Amino acid sequence: MSVHDRLTAAANRIDRLTAAIGRAVAWCVVAMAAVQFLVVIMRYALGLGSIWLQETIIYAHAALFMLAAAWTLAADAHVRVDIIYAGASRRKKALVDLLGALVLLIPFMLTLAALSIPYVARSWAILERSRETSGLPAVFLLKTLIPAFAILLAVQGIAQAMRAVTVLASREPR
Amino acid sequence: MGLPEVFAVGMVVALCALLMAGYPVALTLGGTALAFAAVGHLAGVMDLWLLAALPPRVFGVMTNDVLVAIPLFVFMGVMLERSRVAEDLLETIGRLFGTLTGGLAIAVVIVGVLLAAAKGIVGATVVTMGLIVLPAMLRHGYDRRLAAGTVAATATLAQIFPPATVLVLLGDQMANAWQAAQLAKGNFSPQPVTVSDLFAGAIVPAFALVALYLVFLIAVALVWPKTSPAIPPDPAALRGLALARRLVEALVAPLLLILAVLGSILGGLATPTESASIGAVGAVLLAARRAARARFDELLRPVLARTAHITSMIFLILIGATLFSLVFRGLGGDDMVHRALSGLPGGTVGAVLAVMVAMFLLGFVMDAFEIIFVVVPIVAPELLTMPGVDPVWLGVMMAMNLQTSYLTPPFGPTLFYLRGVAPPEITTAHLYAGIIPFVAIQLVALIVLWFVPGLATWLPHRLYGEP
Question: The complex's ipTM?
Answer without folding.
Answer: 0.95
